[in-house]
Design a protein that fits this description.
The chain is α/β, with parallel strands linked by helices and 181 residues long. It has helices spanning 27-35, 53-61, 74-86, 122-134, 151-162; strands at residues 2-6, 9-13, 43-47, 66-71, 92-96, 109-114, 136-147, 166-170, 174-180. It has a single domain (26-180), classed as Rossmann fold, CATH 3.40.50.
């Protein structure tokens, strides 16, 4: 059992070696979450949740918000559900889904976050950005964290889909990008 604390919000978690960042909150996701301290949202989505790090924090940080977490990896969904229970998060809904395929067609969000699987290729990430726009509420935000070396093409896609983007934070190896509906 591991745990992390960010902005006074403590998260306990279990993970396994076959999941991304199994021993702790990864630096990229931590950088993204720090950008969301004091952020307002009533509905949020963690796309590609893994063991649930960002979704768990979003749900616990804003207990009045409804948070959804999706992942196509069944082992990730199982771990996220265990972590949801151990943190007592009734406001978190975890769904096994390839993209938005298992979400209700009318589901919309104030905030979509992801540490996207850039190792799966540009087409996957470009598709995530394009599909996210259709799932955001008016003024909804897409916040992504990526390795600094691939920021140019991710930023270009965000600008193409949303009309603009901005850099929220830079870390030693990561960049947090925001696009708004």
């Amino acid at each position: 059992m591991g745990e992390f604390d960010l902005a006074g919000t403590n998260i306990k978690f279990e993970s396994s070696a076959d999941l991304f960042s199994p021993k702790n909150l990864d630096r990229g996701s931590e950088l993204l979450l720090k950008c969301l301290v004091n952020s307002e949202y009533k509905t949020a989505l963690d796309w590609g949740c893994g063991w649930g790090a960002m979704a768990l924090w979003l749900a616990k940080y804003r207990p009045d918000a409804k948070v959804t977490a999706i992942d196509s990896d069944i082992a990730a969904i199982k771990a996220a559900n265990i972590n949801k229970e151990s943190n007592g998060l009734a406001n978190l809904n975890i769904i096994a889904s390839h993209g938005f395929s298992e979400l209700e067609a009318e589901a919309r969000f104030d905030l979509i976050v992801s540490n996207p699987p850039t190792h799966r290729g540009r087409d996957v990430v470009d598709g995530m950005i394009a599909q996210s726009r259709t799932r955001l509420n008016p003024n909804g935000r897409l916040v992504l964290v990526v390795e600094a070396r691939i920021k140019p093409w991710v930023a270009r896609q965000m600008k193409e889909v949303f009309g603009d983007y901005k850099i929220l934070q830079r870390g030693p190896k990561h960049v947090v990008l925001l696009a708004q509906n």
